[in-house]
């Protein structure tokens, strides 16, 4: 009997030892929680991850086991399992040998962190190019939002990609120039801390315009050092940068950043581009977990533009490749933003994230796409204007449930609101940017989007299953000011968007994923009321099948096969004040990516995409989608931290693509190479950047347009284009203190 009792006591004691629970928090040296850090039990290879508050829990573990904690951009650390661990990780330059593939639904985030560290950005255009397969084109003197291409979409300026900064939307719905207009020029690139992006409509917390994908930028909470910078380049190009630490103590930080940029650019007609940016941010860690931040930004810019020129004018010698038919194009714009964020920890397993924003936006753009087609005397210049106030908020509740055998459920519930009040949205026929010849459209837009979503991540063993559901409700109001009698039209509409995703991660070197979901993009309010609410929230259905793989310790490969169906590409053409339906479309393709660290200081990256895009309601041979990219390739080679020296070469290729529905006219592709280098000595650094180092002649944006020149009797339809940059060099000086 005594022997049996002893055995029972020993068995119970052993069970208790083996069934301990370890909890802890992971932060950096400034007390900021680290989300997504992997905590691996070396003895059993079982692992878990830290939450957004830095908290983690390990069940059925023995005190005394060794835990290894890893996070991208931080030094790995080993600790002995104990109760209430307080782990502080130190920053470290990224090493692909230490990067581990984790069960993260947004698998491309690892790629973005590597690219930001190995290839620093100098412009807001560089920020967008961090998304593999995303190409941009500028066609209005540097002041207009870039044209975006992704996954077989000519996204125009943002119709099918959701872009945000610190939770505030960048896209402007029902914009004077184009739906979803996303002008990112208010961002000072040096203030960006990380980029969260992915492709497809698979995420419950991403709503309107998330069809091809989304890009979410996060600004830095702290600056390592204050910095003064000066860039000097060709074509009367200057950029002045200032970043100043105002407060940087444990638990609190504040800084301001300013930027002034000017250039005449590489066109024959000086572009007279001027832009001023200001950004300030204060962040406080209110206790061990709660976080509060407030940021204020303002930017203003004005410019002249050479616009899109017809090929025949260059071939006939009327103008050069960098010339202009109407050099009076251009515009001015400004944007002010206030963002408040508050993250509240309820307990060790739950927290609430809150974001509220308020902004003011003004826009005035002068363009001439057809020259003398409609008005043979005065020309066809148009003006597009708006005066917008926008505001909104989003709150998200997160709770984690822990079960036996390492099973875990992360539940999210979010709700929010966005309102855009857009006064005097105007399209007018003008002369020399000063005289209004005819008002073609003018009115007030008020658009409200209420939304709610929920999602659940269930983790068990090597599997993660994510299910989500989102509902969006819209109210569209338009008051037409060109009618004699008061005319106000209103339409409401809702959209339900389910999501379902599967991840299988057999080890830290391999992950398979299958993602599926429904998204949508809204159409311009003027389309909505004109069509009496028909086809105003076209649905997008997508699926991705792929993997992330580390075949070598310092190599990461990502790939995906994907398909996307869009119920209606139905948009408002702001340049003509008309509705242009395009019907149902389908797109399918393959994405391939490679990140390879050749040694301690040399990094290689490459991304290739192929897309097949067709209209589904047209006859074969007449079903091409104009300007849809087919083949894209981008690659870079970077040398980092080589005794103070850094350098990089970046190449991008956009293949030929159809310019019309029958593919009888081709938009020619291009291959461009950029080069940069930098040398750091103590607090000083000097560097250079060369765009188009081989000085190739290329066309950055292209459109099949019907136009008539002043000397012509008849109109001609052909490719009109904006010339891409010629050889363009800049010197960059920085002093940190």
Average pLDDT, all residues: 90
Secondary structure tally, helices: 5
Q: What is the class of the largest domain in the CATH system?
A: Mainly Beta
Largest sheet, strands/sense/barrel: 22 strands, antiparallel, barrel
The number of domains:
2
Give the % helix. Answer: under 10%
Return the structural class: mainly beta
Under CATH, the topology of the largest domain can be stated as Maltoporin, Chain A
CATH architecture of the largest domain: Beta Barrel
- Amino-to-carboxy terminus distance: 76 Å
Rg, nearest Å: 27 Å
* Shape descriptor: globular
Strand content: over 45%
Q: Would you count the extended β strands for me?
A: 43
CATH superfamily of the largest domain: TonB-dependent receptor, beta-barrel domain
Task: Please supply descriptive tags for the structure shown above.
single chain; mainly beta; Immunoglobulin-like; Maltoporin, Chain A; 2 domains; four-stranded antiparallel β-sheet; disordered N terminus
């Amino acid at each position: 009997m005594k022997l049996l009792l002893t055995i029972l006591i020993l068995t119970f004691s052993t069970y208790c030892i083996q069934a301990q629970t370890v909890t802890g928090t992971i932060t950096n040296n400034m007390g900021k929680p680290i989300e997504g850090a992997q905590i691996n039990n070396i003895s059993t290879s079982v692992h878990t991850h830290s939450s957004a508050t830095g908290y983690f829990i390990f069940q059925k573990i023995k005190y005394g086991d060794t835990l290894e904690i890893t996070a991208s951009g931080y030094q790995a650390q080993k600790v002995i399992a104990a109760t209430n661990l307080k782990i502080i990780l130190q920053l470290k330059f990224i090493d692909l040998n230490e990067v581990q593939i984790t069960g993260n639904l947004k698998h491309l985030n690892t790629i973005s962190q590597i690219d930001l560290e190995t290839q620093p950005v100098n412009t807001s255009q560089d920020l967008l190019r961090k998304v593999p397969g995303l190409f941009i084109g500028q066609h209005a003197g540097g002041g207009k939002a870039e044209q975006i291409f992704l996954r077989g979409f000519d996204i125009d300026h943002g119709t099918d990609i959701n872009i945000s900064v610190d939770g505030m939307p960048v896209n402007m719905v029902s914009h004077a120039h184009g739906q979803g207009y996303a002008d990112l020029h208010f961002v000072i690139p040096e203030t960006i801390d990380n980029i969260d992006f992915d492709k497809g409509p698979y995420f419950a917390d991403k709503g309107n315009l998330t069809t091809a994908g989304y890009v979410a930028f996060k600004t830095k909470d702290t600056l390592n050092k204050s910095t003064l910078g000066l860039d000097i380049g060709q074509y009367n190009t200057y950029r002045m940068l200032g970043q100043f630490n105002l407060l940087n103590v444990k638990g609190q930080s504040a800084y301001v950043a300013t930027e002034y940029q000017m250039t005449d650019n590489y066109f024959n007609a000086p572009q007279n581009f001027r832009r001023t940016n200001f950004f300030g941010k204060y962040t406080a860690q209110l206790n061990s977990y709660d976080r509060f931040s407030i940021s204020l930004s303002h930017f203003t810019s004005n410019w002249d533009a050479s616009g899109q020129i017809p090929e025949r004018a260059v071939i006939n010698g009327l103008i050069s490749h960098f010339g202009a038919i109407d050099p009076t194009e251009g515009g001015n714009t400004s944007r002010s933003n206030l963002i408040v964020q508050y993250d509240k920890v309820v307990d060790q397993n739950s927290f609430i994230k809150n974001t509220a924003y308020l902004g003011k936006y003004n826009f005035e753009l002068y363009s001439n796409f057809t020259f003398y087609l409609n008005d043979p005397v005065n020309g066809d210049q148009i003006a597009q204007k708006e005066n917008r106030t926008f505001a909104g908020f989003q709150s998200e509740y997160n709770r984690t449930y822990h079960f036996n055998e390492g099973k875990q459920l992360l539940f999210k519930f979010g709700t929010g609101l966005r309102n855009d009040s857009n006064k005097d949205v105007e399209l007018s026929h003008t002369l020399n940017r000063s005289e209004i010849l005819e008002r073609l459209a003018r009115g007030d837009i008020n658009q409200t989007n209420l939304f709610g979503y929920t999602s659940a991540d269930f983790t068990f063993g090597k599997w993660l299953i994510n299910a989500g559901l989102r509902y969006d409700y819209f109210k569209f109001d338009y008051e037409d000011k060109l009618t004699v009698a008061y005319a106000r039209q209103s339409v409401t509409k809702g959209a339900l968007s389910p999501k379902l995703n599967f991840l299988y991660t057999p080890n830290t070197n391999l992950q398979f994923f299958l993602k599926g979901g429904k998204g949508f993009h809204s159409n311009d309010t003027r389309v909505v009321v004109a069509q009496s609410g028909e086809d105003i929230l076209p649905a997008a259905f997508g699926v991705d099948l792929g993997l992330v793989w580390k075949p070598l310790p310092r190599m990461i490969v990502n790939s995906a096969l994907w398909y996307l169906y869009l119920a209606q590409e139905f948009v408002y053409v702001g340049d003509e004040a008309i509705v242009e339906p395009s019907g149902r479309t389908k797109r399918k393709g393959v994405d391939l990516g490679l990140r390879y660290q050749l040694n301690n200081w040399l990094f290689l990256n490459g991304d290739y995409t192929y897309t097949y895009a067709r209209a589904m309601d047209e006859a074969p041979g007449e079903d091409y989608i104009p300007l849809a990219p087919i083949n894209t390739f981008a690659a870079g080679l970077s040398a980092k931290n080589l005794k103070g020296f850094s350098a990089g070469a970046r190449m991008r290729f956009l293949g030929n693509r159809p310019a019309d529905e029958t593919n009888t006219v081709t938009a020619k592709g291009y291959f461009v190479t950029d080069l940069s280098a930098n040398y750091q000595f103590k607090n000083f650094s000097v560097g250079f950047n060369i765009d188009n180092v081989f000085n190739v002649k290329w066309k950055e944006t292209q459109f099949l347009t019907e136009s008539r020149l002043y000397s012509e009797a008849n109109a001609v339809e052909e490719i009109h284009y904006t010339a891409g940059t010629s050889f363009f060099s800049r010197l960059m000086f920085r002093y940190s203190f």
